[in-house]
Write a structure and sequence with these properties.
heterodimer; A: about 525 residues; Rossmann fold; 19 helices; B: about 350 residues; mainly alpha; ABC transporter involved in vitamin B12 uptake, BtuC; two-stranded antiparallel sheet; about 5% strand; globular
């Protein structure tokens, strides 16, 4: 057995994006016919790892990766997914890559169609070959049979239910004869329970035919029922690699979310027993990818409430819906008054503020100066930083006051910039985030939503941002609701943490509760 | 000695930074203009006459170029629908004449009458542009074209009766060109006009432009102007800050349409004629090119861009044919003008993408 070569072997794989380390020291082995379940919180590095394996161009464009990936004992040097396909690695992405106007058969065999020669193509070359429809159908049906789920090969993709689209994608990969390893990135996310069960069956089928499968999902029970081994990732590190039969769902959850650090009780104050300042009833929000289905939540005055949960479960939809950026319904009462939904201006007038998770898209005027970015909302909403002429008829921008307030926040939040006139797009992610906070602080809100404030920023900036939020809450008595996918950072500064799962509040726990409890809530209602 | 050297490097640095802020394309065009100016006397054209021509052209066109600014700021892109505003101006002009006003009064009345048309058309046009966010410039082009065609019919059908405006033989339907003699021909240009030999400066026209440019500059410094710029810079940001994005865009379109209406009146007083029918058709592209050459991008434009761009564009378009005609003694001025101006437009549109990235 000493000369046995595993199908896939990763040795000390590491990857950083412009100095931001996202993967460290990943070692992994996978045998033919084995099913590997890959789990981890969002941002744990699962996708990046798969992108490396599949040779996605963005890896090369950002400077490649360190370490070695061996496939059949051979070191891989993929420059594009085509190389990966040629080696026999297939991948089904979270987003569909199908042509809506083509039938399933055509999609399955796209660009690999069996062809017939004709007189024309003999003369003008093989680009004018005609398609061999009959053997196409045979091949596609073969692939569909292999999968074990019946879909109609003649059906146009656009007419298919979402589950069938997913199966078409899988059939496409299976129709490749050289397929040795199939990566499935959250394939069950769009499937009904029954369909998911069929998919799991077909994964078992593939494995028995000697195809290795890497299966990424948030539904842990699927992992347990189909995988031979479970690999848990956290913060870019592979934390556990065990046989599925030797572990359990609670254990995996704990590995996924929990750092083995104990929360220091001293940093936590007793959650304030103050009256409710905002009460949310039966909120729904139509935010693509973050649908909120039915959220009822009471937020106490002066507290820091964390909202956590896995990606796509709807936690981001809550602030975006209340602040009127996405279509929403339900009832929100703030400070005794009802807040109309779908009207951003009314929320801002009631002294609510929102720091969006989409820094570059919503949070900043990238082409304008820091002064504009920080002062703009306060100027427009509270008529600050304006000089009035002709009895208020002319509201002139007060450049001096704008400069002053900007420099004040630059100093307070330690924003690294050349001057207050620098353009926002020239700052690093962390500093841009600080600008977004400054913008919200300048509004002097009574209530602040902060969405993913630490996404994509380095550790130092992270600590500063969290500290600034805490200080803002403590010194000004502002109620803060912080939404984050990183449970640890929620536990650092929040008083209570609500976990969203399946577009609903799965439960609210004090920040001092154990990681395991949070983890159980996160996956409790996953849809 | 060392002082001198320091002064030298300071001077060089300033030159480099000036060059960088001015931009290579404008350097090239400005260079070309200088070459033309030097060449003019050499081929026998009167130098001061050339300068006069360029200044005149600038005074006619600058307001039309200024009309580009508000829509660029609000993110509606370049106003290819300029003919719509021009038509409001034409309505103002013809109605003012029809009502019997003469002299300076006819100009004032033309502006007053054009204003409600410009506001009305601007609102309709703005409403349309709010429906098709992202495709503004394409739709704007067609709005311009179709409004011109529609008005071609209306100029014939509207009940104008004034003898010096309608076709002589039929007694109805407006002529293609209407002389402004006795009305507001040169009304601004003659105000405080300066004559030094063959150099003539239309001070009034320049002051009028300066006044409108100042108003625009001031507007962009107000709360509303700031909001407009923010809408253009990032509409989602503006929405999150409680701005009514559609309203801001609408306001910018109305402003732009109104400025176009004023712009054509200023053009007419300089040119001396009202041009109807297909004339507004080709007014948008020179204005677009001028502001692009002036260094504006699809969502950033300043008053300086307007001034520099109009001088450069009009300078080249005016000088090239004259200099060439004098050099080769053949009258190809119209052909050359077409080649040059369309070439400039093509060039300006390539600059558009450059500014975007």
């Amino acid at each position: 057995m000493s000369d046995h070569v595993p199908l896939l072997e990763m040795k000390k794989v590491a990857k950083d994006f412009f100095g931001n380390q996202v993967l460290k020291d990943i070692n992994l082995k996978l045998e033919a016919g084995e099913v590997l379940g890959l789990v981890g919180e969002n941002g744990a590095g699962k996708s990046t790892l798969m992108k490396i394996l599949f040779g996605m161009t963005e890896i090369n464009e950002t400077g490649g990766y360190d370490g070695e990936v061996l496939f059949n004992g051979k070191v891989l040097h993929f420059t594009s997914p085509f190389d990966a396909l040629a080696e026999g690695i297939g991948m089904v992405h979270q987003e569909f890559s199908l042509i809506p106007g083509f039938t399933a058969t055509e999609n399955i065999l796209l660009n690999r169609e069996p062809q017939k020669k004709s007189v024309v193509s003999e003369v003008f070359g093989e680009r004018l070959n005609t398609l061999d429809r009959k053997s196409m159908k045979q091949k596609a049906d073969g692939a569909i049979d292999k999968m074990g789920m019946h879909i109609d090969g003649n059906m146009v993709i656009a007419d298919m239910p979402v589950g069938h689209k997913q199966f078409t994608e899988i059939a496409r990969e299976l129709s490749k004869e050289q397929l040795k390893l199939l990566i499935l990135d959250e394939p069950t996310a769009v499937l009904t329970e029954q369909e998911a069960e069929v998919l799991l069956q077909s994964i078992r089928g593939m494995a028995s035919r000697g195809i290795a499968v890497i299966f990424i999902t948030h539904r842990l029970h699927e992992i347990m029922s189909v995988c031979d081994k479970v690999v848990v990732m956290r913060d870019g590190v592979l934390v556990h690699d065990v046989a599925a039969k030797d572990t359990s769902i609670p254990e995996v959850t704990r590995w996924m979310v929990g750092r083995s650090v104990n929360i220091d009780a001293q940093t936590h104050r007793k959650p304030p027993e103050t009256p409710t300042i905002m009460s949310i009833r039966k909120l729904w929000v139509d935010m693509p990818g973050e649908t909120v289905r039915n959220v009822s939540l009471d937020i106490r005055e002066g507290e820091i409430l964390g909202i956590g949960g896995l990606a796509g479960q709807g936690k981001l939809g809550i602030p975006n819906g209340i602040m009127g950026l996405y279509n929403a319904g339900g009832q929100v009462t703030f400070d005794g008054k009802e807040i109309p939904l779908n009207a951003p201006r009314r929320c801002l007038d009631s002294q609510l503020a929102f720091v969006s998770e989409d820094r570059r898209g919503v949070g900043l005027l990238l082409d304008e100066s820091l002064e504009w970015n920080i002062a703009f909302p306060a100027m427009q909403i509270h008529n600050k930083f304006l000089k009035n002429y002709l009895g208020g008829l002319i509201k002139w921008r007060d450049e001096k006051a704008i400069g002053e307030v900007t420099r004040k926040y630059i100093e307070e939040l330690q924003i690294k910039c050349t001057s207050s006139k620098q353009k926002a797009k020239q700052l690093s992610g962390g500093n841009q985030q600080k600008v977004c906070l400054a913008k919200a602080f300048a509004l002097n809100p009574k209530f602040l939503f902060v969405s993913e404030p630490t996404r994509g920023i380095d550790v130092g900036a992270k600590a500063l941002v969290l500290e600034a939020l805490k200080k803002f809450n403590r010194e000004n008595g502002v109620t803060v609701v912080m939404i984050s996918s990183e449970l640890e950072e929620l536990r650092q500064i929040c008083d209570r943490i609500a976990i969203v799962s399946g577009g609903r509040i799965a439960g609210i726990l004090p920040a001092t509760s154990s990681s395991e409890d949070f983890g159980t809530l996160m996956v409790s209602k996953v849809v | 000695m060392s002082d001198l050297r320091n002064a030298g490097t300071g001077w060089q640095e300033r030159l480099v930074s000036a060059y960088k802020s001015f931009g290579l394309p404008r350097m090239i065009i400005a260079g070309m203009l200088v070459v033309l100016l030097i060449a003019a006397p050499l081929v026998g054209a009167n130098f001061w006459m050339q300068i006069t021509n360029v200044i005149n052209r600038f005074s006619w066109n600058s307001v039309l170029v200024l009309a580009m600014v508000p829509m660029v700021h609000s993110g509606c892109g370049l106003n290819f629908g300029l003919p719509l505003g021009i038509i409001s101006g034409l309505l103002g002009a013809t109605i003012s004449l029809e009502m019997g006003f003469t002299g300076p009064m006819s100009f004032v009345m033309a502006i007053l009458i054009a204003t409600p048309f410009a506001i009305l058309f601007g609102i309709g046009y703005g409403w349309l542009l709010n429906k098709i966010k992202g495709g503004e410039m394409m739709i704007a082009t067609y709005v311009g074209f179709s409004s011109v065609s529609f008005m071609c019919m209306m100029w014939l059908l509207l009940p104008y009766r004034k003898p010096d405006m309608v076709w002589g033989y039929a007694g109805t339907g407006l002529r293609t060109t209407i002389s402004l003699e006795g009305y507001y021909d040169q009304i601004l240009a003659k105000f405080l006009q300066i004559r030094i030999g063959s150099l003539v400066i239309p001070t009034g026209s320049l002051l009028f432009f300066a006044f409108l440019a100042f108003l625009m500059w001031a507007f962009l410094h107000t709360k509303t102007g700031t909001a407009m710029t923010a809408v253009g810079s990032n509409p989602v940001f503006a929405k999150a800050a409680g701005i009514n994005v559609d309203k801001m865009r609408m306001l910018s379109v109305v402003l732009s349409t109104w400025l176009a209406a004023i712009g054509i009146l200023v053009y007419q007083q300089g040119f001396g004629f009202i041009q109807l029918y297909m004339a507004p058709f080709n007014m948008a592209l020179p204005a677009v090119s001028a502001i692009l050459i002036g260094g504006a991008s699809v969502n950033k434009a300043s008053i300086a861009n307007v001034i520099i761009g109009t001088i450069l564009f009009q300078g080249i378009v005016t000088m090239t044919p004259t200099v060439m005609n004098n050099a080769i003694h053949m009258d190809i001025s119209e052909v050359l003008r077409m080649v040059v101006s369309n070439g400039m437009i093509l060039y300006a549109l390539t600059r558009k993408t450059e500014a975007k990235s």
